[in-house]
């Protein structure tokens, strides 16, 4: 026994050649019906040799001696299969062909085995989780299809410890264990997905991938790794979410899906459809699969927002926003593989997805401390596209002693404004028209300001945010709203990755394998949002003079608050009129001052930048079976990153009392290395139970916008303000310690408990400091690295069928999980006292975007024909923005949504399904320091789909 420990340790200290006395192999594929079974445990009865099946069900058991062997195939939800084999010659390979796990329904079987509409694919996921070397959770394609989730983000929110952020009610971004979004990596088939920046402040220029561009129908498996191994990409402090796209099935398959539904807020329709076709030719040497999906949905959002004074909490601005739009998501993915022999395979995977959002809005902004109000009408079509593919091979070499895997891939994504259908505007822009008017507000406090009740001064009666409604002293009409601005904006974001990688695995002995590999990735990106602003200088045109439409209530504006906002809402111009206002003939009348914001304008130049990132990665690792119950996995990964960014430096000067701006191109370069040791210990005291311990070192690269070398100097403020990026930012590193205990139920379920701790260094935050330059004190705003921080918590969950109950009741089950996370980081705060001296204070803050409490709770029922699932998802409050003192922090409010899904099997080929989302009409909320001081309140109402799945063969 001691000898095994010594050999494993010496492997990474000296290179001792170790060979096989004999090298006999057994290969095959484990299947159930038309699909391969992943994560099947295959071992000899004496326990000397063991392996697990790949995602397609194929396996290779190597290093066996000549003679007879008893093989056991074990899989959650099925009785164990045993096969007797005999190897008669040295260095031979025996092909068992197909090993079929057939459904067992004998009355003498006391276990509830694979039965029900969802059980078989849930079993796949649990077997991958059980046999994985990393700490991970998995969901499979058919489980995703039976959840009320239409995109990838909403699918992964059902996994223990995963939360999502939404955009207009739909899931967009995912986070593992409540960590900041950019600390989580999103992968496609093991490679990080290129990003296209979001439209909100917290994601612009970030590495966060929007997952609503990825239809859930394109996914075969989702693997959420919470403690990674050295052969995985190392930038994953929170975790990595790996979307595995479909590959060729084991048998011919053709199925279609069609559905229709309704969005309650928009009071309009939803449509979706998909198909999947796959087959094999040439004696099953050539296999292929092709799938496509289409999802079009009308949506609407009722929104109210506010801005507060940071000193007295008076309400400075109050906004009413009525959104409506149409979103379309479609995707195509294809897989092709050719098996030259059991030892050699080539494959190709390709995908294309496109997400477009045609958004319109009519907004009223009440500037309560400026005695004015404005109305903005806007429309734009924003598209996000993702395309890519990969070519790879899997080869067993040198009499099957060595396995070689290689892959070359390229993926790219773009985000851009597009031309809406029917638009007469020549440019594909996001269009806006702003009208404004002076107003006198009533019901002000003695100081001329307006407050909520919790902040109201003595003698002033405020109200709650949900009941807040400003009043005018004198009513205004559409004749008072005069045109003030016309705006055309373009979004331009592009990113491309080109990747080459190879992995070599060497089976040293039945109890030890070693693996090494390398990867090279070249990334190119560019960002920039040009804008044309036309400021009215002479026109007296009002809303009353133009084509109008009534304020679009979408079934009533914010009925949930019980407030009638009609007194402050006015009709707005229609979309045809918005196009007409931006026609060249109208703008050429000379009534507008044209302000162009691009890379040649001082106020916009800092937002235009491009960059390259080249990453070289290599790793070495081992997997050792110390005893029949203990497995040790360890190794080292190293990633080297070279950065080069091009941006613009903007300097503001005073010349003869006037502001003069100078724009200079700037290029900055940097490089860093990440040394990442990792070790996993897996102990299996009994066959259905895992106890896992892991230490991993991971990291998170800085956001693209933080690395942007732009610098701008603004002398208008006192003291002058310098805003810059920081190419020298270090990545954030984490030393991760994980404990996970899992117990897998034979009737397809799992109970788990885990604890985790992450020691953090170089956490990136937005720094505000003061520097004296040429004798003048400047305030400098730029991203910096803090010294240290930590994040810790625990998670617990159970997924259990009530198979021990009699009759009808055995079809019920529960799926519940909870995650608690807390964190702390040290952040310096700078203030200037009355004497002009800079005071520095070290403050302890929670990590941004980190929720303490996450949980999923579901009650389901299923039998051979019917499945129903009622699910709730909760995400606790999270810090969104640090500004001033804690009373002014911006928080994301707690959110709890309830969804329902059902599936009925008419026969073996036809299923009917129902999906209902947001049954409780949960609101999205942000608040300012106190939960009662809301900054944003949004409602989306319910939406649903009913449809049919038809498996032709």
How would you explain this protein's 3D organization?
The protein has 953 residues and is mainly beta. Among the domains are: 22-100, Immunoglobulins (Immunoglobulin-like, Sandwich); 119-245, Ferric Hydroxamate Uptake Protein, Chain A, domain 1 (Beta Complex). The chain has seven helices and 52 strands. The chain has a 22-stranded antiparallel β-barrel. A five-stranded mixed beta sheet has the order 9-14-15-12-13. Strands 1, 2, 5 and 8 form a four-stranded mixed beta sheet that branches. A hairpin with a 3-residue loop joins strand 44 and strand 45. Residues 130-239 form the TonB-dependent receptor plug domain.
For the report, how would you describe the main beta sheet? 22 strands, antiparallel, barrel
Radius of gyration: 30 Å
Estimate what percentage of residues fall within beta strands.
over 45%
> From the 3D coordinates, which CATH architecture of the domain at 119-245 would you assign?
Beta Complex
Distance between the termini: 52 Å
Question: Quick one: overall form?
Answer: globular
Which superfamily, in CATH terms, is the homologous superfamily of the domain at 119-245?
TonB-dependent receptor, plug domain
Structural class: mainly beta
Membrane topology: Multi-pass membrane protein
InterPro entries: Beta-barrel_TonB (IPR000531), Beta-barrel_TonB_sf (IPR036942), CarboxyPept-like_regulatory (IPR008969), Plug_dom (IPR012910), Plug_dom_sf (IPR037066), TonB-dep_rcpt-like (IPR039426), TonB_rcpt_bac (IPR010104)
Subcellular location: Cell outer membrane
Family: Belongs to the TonB-dependent receptor family.
